[in-house]
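pls design
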């Protein structure tokens, strides 16, 4: 399977369902990966290993290949944001904005392809 960056990901959900799904899943993901996993591993092994563990777990939960490094980077950025602010709310907003931007671009590219 060849992956091209110019090719938008396949989107099979109706447009109206994506914001609703994000409103449900983003808080759950942030609670699990930043609120529980990052905080617990931070307490046990320190910040840097905790960021690595939570970032990889976040990426693995979204499917490993072919975008592992992108999801790891997003998890790392959200983890650093949490470590600096201690705010899950801010992480939720950042995560939701990133998802909304990605979906907007995917739909724009899909619409342009026709």
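designed seq:
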């Amino acid at each position: 399977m060849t992956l091209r960056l110019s090719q938008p990901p396949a989107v099979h959900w109706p447009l109206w369902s994506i914001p609703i799904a994000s409103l449900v899943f983003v808080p759950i993901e942030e609670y699990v990966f930043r609120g529980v996993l990052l905080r617990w591993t931070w307490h046990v092994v320190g910040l840097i290993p905790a960021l690595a563990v939570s970032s990889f777990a976040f990426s693995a939960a979204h499917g490993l290949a072919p975008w592992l490094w992108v999801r790891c980077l997003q998890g790392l950025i959200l983890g650093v944001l949490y470590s600096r602010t201690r705010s899950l709310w801010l992480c939720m907003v950042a995560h939701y904005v990133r998802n909304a931007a990605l979906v907007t671009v995917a739909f724009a590219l899909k619409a342009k392809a026709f």
